Amino acid sequence: MPVNDQPVTLADVAAVANVSAQTVSNVLRRPERVLPKTRRKVEAAIEQLGYHPNHAARALRASTSHVIGLRIEPTSTEVVGSIHDRFLHALAEAGRPSGYHIQLFTADDAAAEAEAARTLIRAGAADGVVLYDVRAQDPRPGLLLAGRVPFVSFGRTVSGTGEYSWVDVDDETGVSDAVDHLVERGHRRIGYIGWPEDFSVGVRRARGWHDAMTRHGLPTDLDARAEDTMPAGSQAAGRLLDDPHPPTAIVAATDTIAVGIHHEATTRGLRPGADLAIVGFDDTPTALAFGLTSIGQPVTEAARAIMELLMDTVAKPDRHAVHGRLLAPRLVVRASSRSARP
Amino acid sequence: MPVNDQPVTLADVAAVANVSAQTVSNVLRRPERVLPKTRRKVEAAIEQLGYHPNHAARALRASTSHVIGLRIEPTSTEVVGSIHDRFLHALAEAGRPSGYHIQLFTADDAAAEAEAARTLIRAGAADGVVLYDVRAQDPRPGLLLAGRVPFVSFGRTVSGTGEYSWVDVDDETGVSDAVDHLVERGHRRIGYIGWPEDFSVGVRRARGWHDAMTRHGLPTDLDARAEDTMPAGSQAAGRLLDDPHPPTAIVAATDTIAVGIHHEATTRGLRPGADLAIVGFDDTPTALAFGLTSIGQPVTEAARAIMELLMDTVAKPDRHAVHGRLLAPRLVVRASSRSARP
DNA sequence: GTACACGGTTTTAGCGTTAAAACCAACCGT
DNA sequence: ACGGTTGGTTTTAACGCTAAAACCGTGTAC
Known about the structure:
The structure is a homodimer. Chain A is α/β, with parallel strands linked by helices. Helices cover 44% and strands 16% of the residues of chain A. Chain A contains 14 helices and twelve strands. In chain A, the strands form two sheets. Chain A has a six-stranded parallel sheet with strand order 2-1-3-4-5-11, with helices on both faces. In chain A, strands 7-6-8-9-10-12 form a six-stranded mixed sheet, sandwiched between helices. In chain A, helix 12 (285-289) links the parallel strand 9 and strand 10 (293-296). The termini of chain A are far apart. The mean pLDDT of chain A is 91. Chains A and B meet through helix 4, helix 5, strand 2, helix 11 and helix 12 of A and helix 4, helix 5, strand 2, helix 11 and helix 12 of B.
């Protein structure tokens, strides 16, 4: 363990091992090019000196930073908890084996984000960026394509999905699975509460419910829309529960709405799980806290897929293959829907 | 807007502006050294070419990366939601004005984190690191000091606080404020549920309650301990509520425990806010969802203070001034404690 | 015995930037 | 008129690394 502070360089290692600097470099980058005997000698010197290759020098020489940029957004206080946090960790973890690091940046809006990403790339501070939570009308993919910024998106726009690589979660199947699960538990009157806007995620989740219900030969009249807040969720739940033939189960497009439903149910003296089954979306900590069944996004898998595609994209920035990957979500069953309908 | 892809360098700008590369560098780093006329000429060329200084080259030359490392931890599913997310954003934002970026890394335990941080520093990939959620017996500050890694911690160990710079939240005052607030609302029987272990944060929060109660001349018998999970919180709340002279308000050391209390209360037919006031800690989204009053940590302020101290530390790594900063938390009053005791 | 290929290593050069030194007017004092 | 400032600019060199070229001893072919 060396304690002196002047950084150890390739040349230092080379001097100790009695070889040239290039040989040390080869030991690290192309070990097969160097004689085992030499390699061991060099490795011993590296060990002895506690050498770590300098990132900046490597980046300068190879013009690749091994850094991926990601805009970090402030967590909205309206929304019940996001998967941003888990996604970040998964991404950092996914980059590790290939030596990629995640670097954060902030931006106030989509345009600023695209501009910041462009600067990051132009400055050689990052090799590519990840777009998080891309929605149907998102301007960011277009902006980044125009700015020639290598990127992969989590989520996708409604058009232009053939122009860039993306990873997305199959919301439709997720919600459909939730309906299957409820039908299996004996439910027939199954409602749905989703976003009012017609952006892709909302549309797809609604369609998942609609199609599954139709497939089971069940009516699709119990369909309500709400903003992504708890009060709106409660209100929408109220409307469904006021139906002359009310639901025994409700699927929500988000955990936030699900919590709103939960609240409305308890207010009305309905026991969640027993009198009204509830299923949320995103499997947030809050869903856990409320014992809510929720449709969880495969965050780790998504992060891994994104890093893979991004490495492709970064490797050949001009005419690289464009890929889309749709991942299946996973239903996490909890008390709010576990028991069979009495 | 140039569309060709070969990166623009200082030399390109210099050629266009008809000056030397060094002058361009001076325009960017020491504008006062260069004639206004020349400066404008150079600035025009920079603009025209869309030049962005190369990070790697700058880092190599100046041996400073303007990068701060931060270990990102997986969000525990046990805990109801953390402030990690908000802290990350605040930190990224706090670094922006001075051109510092946050780079994430992962590690499986404290020792691995320290080792990874050391490597990051030795490789020149980061100038310093931030330790998040440092507790009384935390081995990390010691390890980083030994490894000569510049760092600032959020939270502090019980000893050695004179050896490194830290920022922490004044838990004692936070809890004490919560008690004051409850007393003001007419409560007299105020209980406390905290962690069982004797680590600093737990001790300090418990002391805040104890001291405030004593100050108000109120008894401190309603003291229970629980693991940081909802079931444990419920159980502990049950014990307090079974008291022959039960509390009308309970302060919890975490939002997770507070949610447990909330659950236990509703199970017993007590209406939170009306029959039992509850105060949590950390002001997580879940607290918002439950309408729980909570003691919020000043995340933005903390992040700013940390960046400030870190820049000090990085600037003079050997004998820099060591500072500690204690920040006051802020009580966020919600339905669970708003109304006066009947 | 000379020519040639070959695996392993070293030498050379350059990535883009900036601190430090050198340079070069124009100006100043005597 | 001549050495000495001064302010602005250019030259030089180096940060640590690695691709590419050069080099060099050995083995092989004829």
